Amino acid sequence: MGGRSSVVLLHLLLVLVSFAAVDAGHDYGKALSKSILFFEAQRSGYLPRNQRVSWRANSGLMDGKTSGVDLVGGYYDAGDNVKFGLPMAFTITMMSWSISEYGKQMAGSGELGHAMEAVKWGTDYLIKAHPEPNVLYGEVGDGNTDHYCWQRPEDMTTSRQAYRIDSSHPGSDLAGETVAAMASASIVFRHSDPAYSSLLISHAKQLFEFADKYRGKYDSSIRVAQKYYQSFSGYADELLWAAAWLYQATNDNYYLDYLSNNGDALGGTGWAMTEFGWDVKYAGAQVLASKFLLQGKAGHHSSVLERYQQKADYFMCSCLGKGTRNVQRTPGGLLFRQRWNNLQFVTSASFLLTVYSDYLASSGRNVQCASGTVTPSELLSFAKSQVDYILGDNPRATSYMVGYGSTYPQQVHHRASSIVSFKVNPSFVSCRGGYQTWFGRKASDPNLLDGAIVGGPDAYDNFADERDNYEQTEPATYNNAPLLGVLARLSGGNGGLNQLLPVVVPAPEVPVKKEKPNPLPSSAPVSKASPFTVVQTVTTSWDAKGKTYYRYSTIVTNKSSKTAKNINVSISKLYGPIWGLSKAGNGYSFPSWLSSLPAGKSFEFIYIHSASPADIWVSEYTLV
């Protein structure tokens, strides 16, 4: 089993701070491709025609049937054949967060489609696992019977009993993490599949109500999970995490109110964390709350969100060794928390360091640590150092990503990769026969588990590449998931992006419209019957050098029943920088990655100047 864990307003923003692509000796693009490919080796269910990990075959085809529900699909969590709901949902959340922040970089490397497929493989399963508003299936199979056997997923004879939570047997932590997974994934599919995105939001809202109303730890209801994925931190962190993701996905102030009003009671503003992972979500919620604050969305919740941000700063300082309670490091410089699957904490911390560095850079802010000021570039550089260690820059010169570099683990603690492929030799591998024939082999795995991040070295940078050394050689989906975003960022840079800038958001419920001037002549001029609304809102202001500067959020909404393309936005009386649009002739166009605006959808961009709102209108467009 994978390792267990225990438990401002915006500053003056006149010049967008951007990082250049990070120089490195590693091929981060190649590492990204491999890290996504690993998820195909973890698939359960009917494998698709475009399956690239060819040594795997269909498995778990009767999952859920004895309980009267279809639970075919999803992911095996690590080197076994159990589907554990809590780490699976966290995996999907972190993949989705990676895509929502760094999808453009993934697209540039040709991996966005693969990453989205990896997310959907998980969310399709989560939708099946939520057949009723107050019912969620949280496990298929159990670790005890599974660990007694060493079998390929295609052969498994172990129990496939399904376990669930409901109103009489609650699990707020499991339900809350599933909310986060579905809400974050809805952002991923908002453009490409709006109907699927809406479906995910509907499930997420139902599950949030369930999690909040019927409170309890999931492992008190699904007791077979206690030995493997016990929720040491309880469910308070998942409730805040879930609310933060629902606010990020919907822009519904109900969830921001929940995050803020419950920050003290549920520990979000109190717990100062030095870890982040499938069990403890506080640091993730604190980083998201900081993002909302830096975006100018806090409103009357500013003081609460500032306390969240203080705790996010604490996490960053502790990772860099500049706080009051710092994370241990190995002599080779790797963050170290525990011997059992330590790299899960390294990849998750690296992601928070990376995305927080971009949030701060977009707002012109640094982190004030006990040992001094830390700049955004320092956060990113340290995250890079952790990734470089994983990829081979360590005392053993070993890559801990299988298949990357010249030296990497050969005897991975993983049933499917360690036994000859079903497609090569379909002869049945029995429960105990797998141990006798395959587990004890002192030879390389017959199947390459390409891209898998194993548990990693101990506190002294030592590592034993042995199949029975599960603490160090077992991979896990949640080791890889956060790394997707970091690798995409290191491979593609930030592309001049402002990480605080939303891509597409719902139109405000009560928009305050500003009268627009007559449009300039164009091939498709906007008339009084224009299908677009343009709503401008002051999100924050500040005084500097005798002037008052305003940050304007501008939302363009397609009110027609058709998709709009070739959109050109005209702006006059603009006296400051603008983010989110590209200069095109005498006007502006949407970013290259947003080729159209579907019916009913909105696009947001931001500008700053020391004057009244600029005049903004859609001057050209095509409806299809």
UniProtKB/TrEMBL annotation:
InterPro entries: 6-hairpin_glycosidase_sf (IPR008928), 6hp_glycosidase-like_sf (IPR012341), CBM_49 (IPR019028), Glyco_hydro_9 (IPR001701), Glyco_hydro_9_Asp/Glu_AS (IPR033126), Glyco_hydro_9_His_AS (IPR018221). GO terms for cellular component: extracellular region. It is found in: Secreted. One of its GO terms (biological process) is cellulose catabolic process. The active site is at H413, D465, E474. GO terms for molecular function: carbohydrate binding; cellulase activity. This is Endoglucanase. Residues 1-24 form the signal peptide. It comes from Dioscorea zingiberensis. The keyword Coiled coil does not apply. It comes from the Eukaryota. Its EC number is 3.2.1.4. The keyword Glycoprotein applies. Keywords: Carbohydrate metabolism, Cellulose degradation, Glycoprotein, Glycosidase, Hydrolase, Polysaccharide degradation, Secreted, Signal. It catalyses: Endohydrolysis of (1->4)-beta-D-glucosidic linkages in cellulose, lichenin and cereal beta-D-glucans. It is an enzyme of class 3 (hydrolase). Residues 532-612 form the Carbohydrate binding domain. Belongs to the glycosyl hydrolase 9 (cellulase E) family.
